[in-house]
Design a protein that fits this description.
Layout: H1 3-23, H2 28-49, E1 54-55, H3 61-67, E2 74-75, H4 90-97, H5 102-117
Antiparallel strand pairs: 1-2
Helix pairs in contact: 1-2, 4-5
């Protein structure tokens, strides 16, 4: 489904739900659905402003055939949220250092940092 088709579908759904509200009394679920649809349209508009990362042509012919993607289809990156680095506290360092050898110390430090940052 193209972006234009998705936008049209969402706009049609909004119109139908708004008509339903006009003809009956507002129902909370309908109001929530309208808001979600409007947010989807905003997300599409934001995505359309983003530059494509590459095109589907980067995939092999087998994948393109199976997925139905046109090789000219632009593909976009989904930015990951920025996370603040979480370091080790002095107490955590003391807990790691006790009774460990250097190799074990490095592995224990790595494991603790992975635990705190995933």
């Amino acid at each position: 489904m193209s972006i234009e088709a998705m936008k049209q579908l969402i706009e049609d759904c909004i119109s139908m739900m708004e008509y339903h509200i006009e003809q009956t009394r507002p129902i909370h679920t309908t109001t929530v659905a309208i808001q979600a649809a409007k947010e989807a349209l905003k997300a599409i508009a934001k995505a359309e402003k983003q530059e494509p990362l590459c095109t589907a042509a980067m995939f092999d012919e087998w994948f393109l055939a199976k997925s139905g993607l046109d090789p000219k289809t632009p593909l976009y990156d989904h930015p990951q949220p920025k996370r603040e680095w979480v370091g080790l506290t002095d107490e955590e360092i003391d807990g790691i250092v006790k009774n460990t050898r250097w190799h074990e110390l490095i592995k224990a430090t790595e494991a603790k940092l992975k635990e705190k940052n995933t």
